[in-house]
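Our preliminary data section would be incomplete without showing what the modeling component actually yields. Below, a chain of 342 amino acids is followed by its predicted structure, encoded as tokens that our downstream tools consume directly.
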Amino acid sequence: MVEPIADSKETTLEVSASAAAEPRLLFRFDSPVERLASLDFLRGGAIFFMVLFNALYFYQSVPNWLKHAPADGLTLPDLGVPIFLFALGVSYRLSFTRWLEKTGKKKTLLHFLFRFLILWAFGFFGELMVFGHFTWGVLAMIGAVGLYCLPLLFLPPFQRLLVSFLLLAAYQGALLAGMPVLFMEDGLGGPLAVFAWAFPAIVAASCGTWMQEKRWPKKMMEIMAAGFGLISLGLILSPFIPFNKHKVSLPYVVFTSGLSLIVFLFSFILMDIGKLKITVFTSLGKNPLIIYMLSGVLTLGLKTITPEAASFTLLLAESLVVLLINYAVAKWLDRRGLALRV
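Predicted structure:
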């Protein structure tokens, strides 16, 4: 993923000159000297629970609250993807600004265009090779969100938010008018749901860089108000348009965007200001793509040998083994200062 390396002239976090240098490669396999710990924590927390819940999803004995809501509704696993996309939006905006200042519009546009196009192709065609048919999985969706957000990042924050919300509303209107949802079985709304999934990233790109402001303590209160405002709007709309992760409904997206904003705010206070360390999450958050792909392979392997009626105790034990393997790999990469950035 795109990692945030805040510019030392604009933020309270100091970054060495070597860390600030941006490579010309689309892929980088190293770790910057200074990072926002809150973003690693946010990504790592999302990946931790995505890995855990994905490993439990297919089985009858697992309680419903540990599975994605099958249709309307909201469960704990439904929070993972929006929070992850929010973290993407913060780091995307920081990296985009740095590239724009150093290389200009043309090179910045080409850099991120190719970066997210490769990620989309890897996810879309990679899953075609694995499953033998077209799907719309997480990697393809993230790549599409990155491509969609790119032109919006050239707009001022308010215009960026307005355009994104209007397109989200248009998408919801099309759903209400009977637009079919492609790849419904994949649970991500299909290609057109990019108009919805991009909203948490755009909220983050517009509101999530407050730590760069000279008066960021005051900004914290504004961000908190914005977060609770989005949460309230989602709750107000939910009786009329239910939360639905599979269709990526407007109230679901707005509510989870506000929640992500609040979680990020407190993560920054605890991790970057208070220097709290939760190494399980931060290590996972430095290599989210590697960990997510590894967990997918392990989960599919377990599915082939585990009966659907397996006991919850056995399934929980298997899920913990998957988590431990993923954490061991993440920790090994972290200790060597290695991070795959796409």
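The CA atoms of residues 173 and 179 lie 9 Å apart. Confidence is low (pLDDT under 50) at residues 1-33. Preliminary results of this kind motivate Aim 1 of the renewal.
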